[in-house]
Write a structure and sequence with these properties.
The chain is an alpha/beta fold. The protein has one domain: Alpha-Beta Barrel (TIM Barrel). It is about 35% helix and about 15% strand. The strands form three sheets. An eight-stranded parallel β-barrel has the order 3-4-5-8-9-10-11-12, surrounded by six helices. Strands 1-2 form a two-stranded antiparallel ribbon. Helix 9 links the parallel strand 11 and strand 12. The longest helix is centred in the middle third of the chain and has 20 residues. The radius of gyration is 18 Å and the shape is globular.
Amino acid sequence: MVRLLDSLKVGDITLKNRIVMPPMYTGFATKKGEVTEKLVDHYIDRCKNLGLLIIEHSYVAIEGKLSERQLGAYNESLISGLKKLSRRIQNMGTPVILQISHAGNRAMSDVTGIKKVSSSPNNQSHELESDEIKVIIQRFAKAAEWGIKAGFNGIEIHGAHGFLLNQFYSPITNKRSDQYGGCLENRLRFPLEVVREVKKKIRNKLLLYRLGSDDLDPRGTKIWESQIFAIKLENAGVNLIDVSGGICGSRPDILQGIQGYFVSQAQQIRKAVNVPIIGVGGIKEPEFANRLIEEEKVDLIAVGRQLFKDPDWATKTVERLKI
Protein backbone atom coordinates (compact mmCIF):
# COMPACT_ATOMS: atom_id res chain seq x y z
CA MET A 1 0.00 0.00 0.00
CA VAL A 2 1.32 3.44 -0.99
CA ARG A 3 1.53 6.01 1.82
CA LEU A 4 2.07 9.75 2.17
CA LEU A 5 5.72 9.25 3.15
CA ASP A 6 6.55 7.00 0.20
CA SER A 7 8.72 8.34 -2.60
CA LEU A 8 7.44 9.07 -6.10
CA LYS A 9 9.36 9.38 -9.36
CA VAL A 10 8.12 12.21 -11.57
CA GLY A 11 10.06 12.69 -14.78
CA ASP A 12 13.75 12.55 -13.88
CA ILE A 13 13.19 13.50 -10.24
CA THR A 14 12.40 11.24 -7.30
CA LEU A 15 10.34 13.02 -4.66
CA LYS A 16 11.15 11.75 -1.16
CA ASN A 17 7.48 11.85 -0.12
CA ARG A 18 4.05 12.94 -1.39
CA ILE A 19 3.79 16.21 0.58
CA VAL A 20 3.58 19.32 -1.62
CA MET A 21 3.63 22.95 -0.59
CA PRO A 22 1.41 24.64 -3.19
CA PRO A 23 1.94 28.16 -4.54
CA MET A 24 0.57 30.81 -2.16
CA TYR A 25 1.02 34.55 -2.47
CA THR A 26 3.19 36.11 0.25
CA GLY A 27 3.56 39.77 -0.74
CA PHE A 28 7.25 39.55 0.14
CA ALA A 29 8.67 40.50 -3.29
CA THR A 30 9.67 44.07 -4.16
CA LYS A 31 7.34 46.27 -6.19
CA LYS A 32 9.36 45.26 -9.25
CA GLY A 33 8.75 41.58 -8.52
CA GLU A 34 12.26 40.90 -7.24
CA VAL A 35 13.17 38.21 -4.71
CA THR A 36 13.90 39.50 -1.19
CA GLU A 37 15.58 37.91 1.82
CA LYS A 38 12.20 37.83 3.54
CA LEU A 39 10.80 35.78 0.66
CA VAL A 40 13.75 33.38 0.72
CA ASP A 41 13.48 32.95 4.49
CA HIS A 42 9.74 32.24 4.20
CA TYR A 43 10.39 29.26 1.94
CA ILE A 44 13.49 28.02 3.76
CA ASP A 45 11.45 27.89 6.96
CA ARG A 46 8.91 25.60 5.28
CA CYS A 47 10.79 23.45 2.78
CA LYS A 48 12.29 20.82 5.10
CA ASN A 49 10.76 17.35 4.66
CA LEU A 50 8.63 18.37 1.67
CA GLY A 51 8.47 16.15 -1.37
CA LEU A 52 7.99 19.17 -3.61
CA LEU A 53 7.70 22.94 -3.20
CA ILE A 54 5.90 25.13 -5.75
CA ILE A 55 6.79 28.83 -5.56
CA GLU A 56 3.97 31.37 -5.64
CA HIS A 57 2.55 32.63 -8.93
CA SER A 58 4.98 34.87 -10.78
CA TYR A 59 3.66 37.24 -13.42
CA VAL A 60 4.89 36.84 -16.99
CA ALA A 61 3.84 40.30 -18.22
CA ILE A 62 3.27 43.68 -16.55
CA GLU A 63 -0.38 43.83 -17.61
CA GLY A 64 -0.91 40.44 -15.98
CA LYS A 65 0.25 41.51 -12.51
CA LEU A 66 -2.25 40.72 -9.76
CA SER A 67 -0.85 42.59 -6.78
CA GLU A 68 1.71 45.23 -5.89
CA ARG A 69 4.35 42.93 -4.37
CA GLN A 70 3.79 39.86 -6.50
CA LEU A 71 6.85 37.86 -7.51
CA GLY A 72 7.85 38.43 -11.12
CA ALA A 73 9.14 36.31 -14.01
CA TYR A 74 8.66 38.92 -16.73
CA ASN A 75 12.24 40.05 -17.26
CA GLU A 76 15.67 38.46 -17.59
CA SER A 77 17.00 40.79 -14.90
CA LEU A 78 15.03 38.79 -12.30
CA ILE A 79 17.00 35.58 -12.91
CA SER A 80 19.70 36.28 -10.32
CA GLY A 81 17.21 36.66 -7.48
CA LEU A 82 15.22 33.62 -8.59
CA LYS A 83 18.45 31.62 -8.78
CA LYS A 84 19.27 32.51 -5.18
CA LEU A 85 15.79 31.32 -4.16
CA SER A 86 15.97 28.01 -6.03
CA ARG A 87 19.49 27.19 -4.87
CA ARG A 88 18.77 27.87 -1.21
CA ILE A 89 15.74 25.57 -1.29
CA GLN A 90 17.54 22.82 -3.20
CA ASN A 91 20.39 22.98 -0.70
CA MET A 92 17.79 21.89 1.87
CA GLY A 93 17.14 18.77 -0.22
CA THR A 94 13.82 19.85 -1.72
CA PRO A 95 13.00 20.06 -5.44
CA VAL A 96 11.38 23.39 -6.33
CA ILE A 97 9.04 24.49 -9.11
CA LEU A 98 8.29 28.04 -10.28
CA GLN A 99 4.65 28.80 -11.03
CA ILE A 100 4.08 31.35 -13.81
CA SER A 101 0.85 33.20 -14.42
CA HIS A 102 -1.05 36.01 -16.08
CA ALA A 103 -4.00 37.42 -14.12
CA GLY A 104 -5.96 38.61 -17.15
CA ASN A 105 -8.95 40.67 -16.04
CA ARG A 106 -8.08 40.02 -12.40
CA ALA A 107 -4.95 42.17 -12.75
CA MET A 108 -4.70 45.52 -10.95
CA SER A 109 -4.73 48.39 -13.44
CA ASP A 110 -3.95 50.88 -10.69
CA VAL A 111 -0.70 48.95 -10.10
CA THR A 112 0.20 48.15 -13.72
CA GLY A 113 -1.00 51.38 -15.33
CA ILE A 114 -2.30 49.24 -18.20
CA LYS A 115 -5.87 48.32 -19.13
CA LYS A 116 -6.79 44.77 -18.20
CA VAL A 117 -7.02 42.07 -20.86
CA SER A 118 -9.17 38.96 -20.99
CA SER A 119 -10.77 36.35 -23.21
CA SER A 120 -13.82 38.59 -23.66
CA PRO A 121 -14.45 42.30 -23.08
CA ASN A 122 -16.24 44.01 -20.24
CA ASN A 123 -16.24 47.59 -18.99
CA GLN A 124 -12.80 47.11 -17.42
CA SER A 125 -10.94 44.78 -19.81
CA HIS A 126 -9.98 44.52 -23.44
CA GLU A 127 -10.62 41.34 -25.46
CA LEU A 128 -7.32 39.91 -26.61
CA GLU A 129 -6.86 39.72 -30.36
CA SER A 130 -5.10 36.80 -32.03
CA ASP A 131 -1.78 38.62 -32.41
CA GLU A 132 -1.89 39.69 -28.75
CA ILE A 133 -2.54 36.09 -27.72
CA LYS A 134 0.58 35.02 -29.61
CA VAL A 135 2.62 37.63 -27.71
CA ILE A 136 1.38 36.33 -24.36
CA ILE A 137 2.16 32.75 -25.35
CA GLN A 138 5.75 33.83 -25.94
CA ARG A 139 5.84 35.66 -22.62
CA PHE A 140 4.86 32.46 -20.84
CA ALA A 141 7.52 30.59 -22.80
CA LYS A 142 10.20 33.19 -22.02
CA ALA A 143 9.30 33.25 -18.32
CA ALA A 144 9.61 29.46 -18.25
CA GLU A 145 13.01 29.64 -19.97
CA TRP A 146 14.24 32.17 -17.39
CA GLY A 147 12.88 30.01 -14.58
CA ILE A 148 14.92 27.05 -15.78
CA LYS A 149 18.00 29.29 -16.19
CA ALA A 150 17.43 30.29 -12.58
CA GLY A 151 17.84 26.66 -11.57
CA PHE A 152 14.27 25.55 -10.88
CA ASN A 153 13.50 21.86 -11.33
CA GLY A 154 10.48 22.71 -13.41
CA ILE A 155 7.64 25.09 -14.21
CA GLU A 156 3.99 25.13 -13.26
CA ILE A 157 1.58 26.97 -15.55
CA HIS A 158 -1.29 28.57 -13.65
CA GLY A 159 -4.56 27.70 -15.38
CA ALA A 160 -6.92 28.00 -12.42
CA HIS A 161 -8.61 30.45 -10.01
CA GLY A 162 -10.08 32.70 -12.68
CA PHE A 163 -6.76 33.87 -14.10
CA LEU A 164 -6.21 34.42 -17.83
CA LEU A 165 -5.86 30.83 -19.05
CA ASN A 166 -8.86 29.87 -16.93
CA GLN A 167 -10.77 32.83 -18.41
CA PHE A 168 -10.32 31.26 -21.85
CA TYR A 169 -11.25 27.77 -20.64
CA SER A 170 -14.47 28.70 -18.81
CA PRO A 171 -17.66 29.42 -20.78
CA ILE A 172 -18.61 31.85 -18.01
CA THR A 173 -15.85 34.25 -19.05
CA ASN A 174 -15.18 33.18 -22.65
CA LYS A 175 -17.81 34.63 -24.99
CA ARG A 176 -15.63 34.67 -28.10
CA SER A 177 -16.83 33.59 -31.53
CA ASP A 178 -13.40 33.00 -33.13
CA GLN A 179 -11.05 29.99 -32.94
CA TYR A 180 -10.45 30.69 -29.24
CA GLY A 181 -14.09 30.57 -28.14
CA GLY A 182 -17.28 28.55 -28.27
CA CYS A 183 -16.78 24.79 -28.23
CA LEU A 184 -14.50 23.02 -25.77
CA GLU A 185 -11.77 22.46 -28.35
CA ASN A 186 -11.60 26.19 -29.06
CA ARG A 187 -11.65 27.18 -25.39
CA LEU A 188 -8.70 24.85 -24.78
CA ARG A 189 -6.69 26.20 -27.70
CA PHE A 190 -4.90 29.07 -25.94
CA PRO A 191 -4.00 27.15 -22.74
CA LEU A 192 -2.66 24.25 -24.80
CA GLU A 193 -0.66 26.58 -27.04
CA VAL A 194 0.96 27.98 -23.90
CA VAL A 195 1.72 24.47 -22.63
CA ARG A 196 3.34 23.40 -25.90
CA GLU A 197 5.54 26.50 -26.14
CA VAL A 198 6.63 26.21 -22.52
CA LYS A 199 7.42 22.53 -23.06
CA LYS A 200 9.74 23.43 -25.94
CA LYS A 201 11.65 25.85 -23.71
CA ILE A 202 12.06 23.62 -20.66
CA ARG A 203 12.57 20.31 -22.51
CA ASN A 204 13.17 17.53 -19.98
CA LYS A 205 12.49 19.63 -16.87
CA LEU A 206 9.23 19.01 -15.01
CA LEU A 207 6.11 20.63 -16.44
CA LEU A 208 3.10 21.04 -14.17
CA TYR A 209 -0.31 22.53 -14.92
CA ARG A 210 -2.64 23.93 -12.27
CA LEU A 211 -6.01 22.95 -13.65
CA GLY A 212 -9.15 24.91 -12.75
CA SER A 213 -11.17 21.71 -12.86
CA ASP A 214 -14.61 22.92 -11.81
CA ASP A 215 -16.27 26.34 -11.75
CA LEU A 216 -18.89 25.11 -9.23
CA ASP A 217 -21.45 26.91 -11.40
CA PRO A 218 -23.98 25.29 -13.77
CA ARG A 219 -22.92 27.79 -16.45
CA GLY A 220 -19.26 26.86 -16.14
CA THR A 221 -16.82 24.04 -16.78
CA LYS A 222 -17.81 20.49 -15.88
CA ILE A 223 -15.57 17.72 -14.62
CA TRP A 224 -15.96 15.68 -17.82
CA GLU A 225 -14.55 18.64 -19.76
CA SER A 226 -11.60 18.81 -17.38
CA GLN A 227 -10.98 15.09 -17.88
CA ILE A 228 -10.68 15.76 -21.62
CA PHE A 229 -8.45 18.75 -20.89
CA ALA A 230 -6.24 16.61 -18.62
CA ILE A 231 -5.78 14.01 -21.36
CA LYS A 232 -4.69 16.76 -23.76
CA LEU A 233 -2.31 18.15 -21.12
CA GLU A 234 -0.73 14.72 -20.69
CA ASN A 235 -0.37 14.34 -24.46
CA ALA A 236 1.28 17.78 -24.62
CA GLY A 237 3.99 16.69 -22.19
CA VAL A 238 2.69 17.75 -18.78
CA ASN A 239 4.30 15.58 -16.07
CA LEU A 240 1.99 16.38 -13.19
CA ILE A 241 -1.49 17.91 -12.88
CA ASP A 242 -2.30 20.10 -9.89
CA VAL A 243 -6.11 20.06 -9.54
CA SER A 244 -7.85 23.08 -8.02
CA GLY A 245 -10.85 25.35 -8.56
CA GLY A 246 -11.76 27.31 -11.65
CA ILE A 247 -13.66 30.60 -11.74
CA CYS A 248 -14.85 29.81 -8.19
CA GLY A 249 -11.30 30.41 -6.96
CA SER A 250 -9.04 28.51 -4.60
CA ARG A 251 -11.22 28.87 -1.48
CA PRO A 252 -14.91 28.90 -2.45
CA ASP A 253 -17.15 29.76 0.47
CA ILE A 254 -19.49 26.81 -0.08
CA LEU A 255 -16.62 24.34 0.48
CA GLN A 256 -14.92 25.92 3.47
CA GLY A 257 -14.64 23.70 6.53
CA ILE A 258 -14.33 20.55 4.43
CA GLN A 259 -10.92 18.88 4.40
CA GLY A 260 -9.80 18.00 0.88
CA TYR A 261 -12.54 20.00 -0.78
CA PHE A 262 -11.09 19.66 -4.31
CA VAL A 263 -10.00 16.02 -3.89
CA SER A 264 -13.16 14.61 -5.47
CA GLN A 265 -12.38 16.57 -8.65
CA ALA A 266 -8.76 15.41 -8.52
CA GLN A 267 -9.91 11.82 -8.14
CA GLN A 268 -12.01 12.13 -11.30
CA ILE A 269 -9.08 13.64 -13.21
CA ARG A 270 -6.84 10.81 -11.98
CA LYS A 271 -9.15 8.26 -13.61
CA ALA A 272 -8.58 9.86 -17.01
CA VAL A 273 -4.77 10.14 -17.15
CA ASN A 274 -1.56 8.32 -16.34
CA VAL A 275 0.38 11.23 -14.85
CA PRO A 276 0.42 11.88 -11.07
CA ILE A 277 -2.28 14.10 -9.62
CA ILE A 278 -2.03 16.58 -6.74
CA GLY A 279 -5.06 16.91 -4.47
CA VAL A 280 -5.71 20.08 -2.50
CA GLY A 281 -8.26 21.91 -0.39
CA GLY A 282 -8.00 22.79 3.28
CA ILE A 283 -6.07 19.68 4.27
CA LYS A 284 -4.85 19.92 7.84
CA GLU A 285 -4.45 16.50 9.42
CA PRO A 286 -1.55 14.16 8.56
CA GLU A 287 -3.72 11.07 8.99
CA PHE A 288 -6.33 12.44 6.61
CA ALA A 289 -3.66 13.28 4.03
CA ASN A 290 -2.16 9.82 4.38
CA ARG A 291 -5.56 8.14 3.96
CA LEU A 292 -6.15 9.97 0.66
CA ILE A 293 -2.92 8.46 -0.66
CA GLU A 294 -3.63 5.00 0.74
CA GLU A 295 -7.08 5.00 -0.86
CA GLU A 296 -5.48 6.01 -4.17
CA LYS A 297 -7.67 9.06 -4.57
CA VAL A 298 -4.66 11.20 -5.50
CA ASP A 299 -0.90 10.73 -5.84
CA LEU A 300 0.31 13.76 -3.89
CA ILE A 301 -1.19 16.04 -1.26
CA ALA A 302 -0.86 19.84 -1.28
CA VAL A 303 -0.95 21.46 2.15
CA GLY A 304 -1.09 25.23 1.96
CA ARG A 305 -2.65 27.20 4.77
CA GLN A 306 -1.42 24.80 7.43
CA LEU A 307 2.17 25.25 6.24
CA PHE A 308 1.61 28.99 6.22
CA LYS A 309 0.52 28.82 9.86
CA ASP A 310 3.00 26.15 10.95
CA PRO A 311 6.29 26.05 9.03
CA ASP A 312 7.12 22.70 10.68
CA TRP A 313 3.95 20.91 9.54
CA ALA A 314 5.78 18.60 7.14
CA THR A 315 8.47 17.73 9.69
CA LYS A 316 5.86 16.99 12.35
CA THR A 317 3.90 14.89 9.85
CA VAL A 318 6.95 12.80 8.94
CA GLU A 319 7.59 12.11 12.62
CA ARG A 320 3.92 11.36 13.31
CA LEU A 321 3.44 8.92 10.44
CA LYS A 322 6.72 7.04 10.78
CA ILE A 323 6.15 3.37 11.51
